[in-house]
């Protein structure tokens, strides 16, 4: 472990992507990270807003979007186009040689269409394989890969994937060579004991605490798949997972939630 | 020249991108090209259609789109998102390891906002620099770069660029190392003496013939910047420029227009 190179994988949520001022602050923190970095970005409200403008009714089950053909077009446009290129151009301006990717680019991330059980999620993709060599090649070349959560099945079909999961899977795949620290950044300070109370930050969360909080109903909605995935990443080789604001990227005294097994 | 490696740069027009059947045929021809290849794609009608759905009035002067902020969002979504990723996923399915790029990705193509003279083109970008090393690195790694015509200024601003020009500029930049053949593919057989008559194909066009046809009013609209740029590429090191259908990519007996100085 000691001899492995450090790699930082950062996932930023839609609440940051949607806010131009926060995004500028994010660039400032992100550029201070030393060593190779990977960025994964969420979608924000733009996709839902565009769907509404186009008269497509956004459908979600348990916080997960149902991706019909029209919705897949919209998320491909917004995530892989508008947001991804905006972030890449923004990072280029800070001197980071960013390269925007979907899972189809360089065959970076293959997925399969989620099979229909209780719910038909449409063109939702569950990840099968992260292309370690391709991402490693980019990192070794000094590039910063910037992933939107659009993947492909290798047969020409694009798929809509959960960005939290994608970040965890990329982090896990890269941990064979790197000491990977995974950061989930959003506008909250971290995992809160009481979501209504910003001061109730859980600074250190292991799987026992997590299980207890989950059964007590203190972890809800999108936080459940995010944390499930994060603990999976930890048990698959990722060194540390941090959850908090963008400040934690450049200031390690900043309070946040650190996950450990 | 003899010792240089062959490189094929292909630009496909919106009339191909818009048509799913033609696109499948295109993949079949494109995959038969031996040696390194670069693909540049145009926009098609999707951007204008989306603008209309969103209540943005598409504006053009002399066939060139006026790119206001709302239009820039739309073309970034459609060109760099929807169409680029669709093409990349389609090429991956044929076994080509495609990687979709805007000019911002890997700092591939820098441009500046066109200065306002008679017409304010808005966020239209004129190319300053093609990043030879980055593209060469991808080609040497066995990747097929797939460019949409969205570029950046290096200061965080995305810009809308003419795809014909972008193809010619990439071809020119790569000609320092490669023997470059540039193909402009669309649904016509090539340059026609009489646009109304499909049988009036000009098979070989040099700059003298071009000048004569231009003054006779036989070359009009979007063909003028396309051919101007193509002749510029020829005088800057590109070996040959071909204009015709997608069939010419895999069948060199197929009639088309070959441009030469």
From TrEMBL, chains A, B:
Coiled coil: none annotated. SUPFAM superfamilies: Carbamate kinase-like (SSF53633). GO terms for molecular function: acetylglutamate kinase activity; ATP binding. Keywords: Amino-acid biosynthesis, Arginine biosynthesis, ATP-binding, Cytoplasm, Kinase, Nucleotide-binding, Transferase. It is found in: Cytoplasm. Residues 7-243 form the Aspartate/glutamate/uridylate kinase domain. This is Acetylglutamate kinase. It comes from Dokdonia sinensis.
């Amino acid at each position: 472990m000691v001899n492995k190179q450090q790699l930082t994988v950062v996932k930023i949520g839609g609440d940051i992507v949607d806010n131009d001022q926060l995004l500028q602050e994010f660039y400032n923190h992100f550029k201070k990270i030393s060593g190779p970095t990977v960025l994964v970005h969420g979608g924000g409200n733009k996709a839902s807003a565009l769907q509404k403008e186009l008269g497509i009714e956004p459908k979600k089950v348990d916080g997960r979007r149902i991706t019909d053909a029209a919705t897949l077009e919209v998320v491909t446009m917004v995530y892989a186009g508008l947001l991804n290129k905006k972030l890449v151009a923004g990072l280029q301006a800070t001197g980071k040689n960013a390269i925007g990717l979907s899972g189809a680019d360089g065959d970076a991330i293959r997925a399969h269409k989620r099979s229909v059980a209780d719910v038909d999620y449409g063109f939702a993709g569950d990840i099968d394989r992260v292309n370690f060599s391709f991402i490693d090649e980019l990192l070794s070349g000094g590039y910063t890969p910037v992933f939107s959560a659009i993947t492909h099945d290798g047969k020409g079909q694009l798929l809509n994937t959960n960005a939290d999961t994608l970040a965890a899977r990329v982090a896990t795949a890269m941990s064979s060579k790197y000491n990977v620290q995974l950061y989930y950044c959003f506008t909250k300070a971290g995992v809160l004991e009481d979501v209504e109370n910003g001061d109730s930050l859980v600074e250190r969360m292991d799987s026992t605490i997590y299980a207890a909080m989950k059964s007590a109903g203190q972890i809800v909605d999108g936080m459940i798949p995010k944390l499930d995935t994060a603990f999976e990443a930890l048990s698959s080789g990722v060194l540390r997972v941090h959850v908090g604001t963008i400040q934690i990227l450049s200031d390690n005294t900043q309070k946040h939630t650190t996950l450990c097994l």
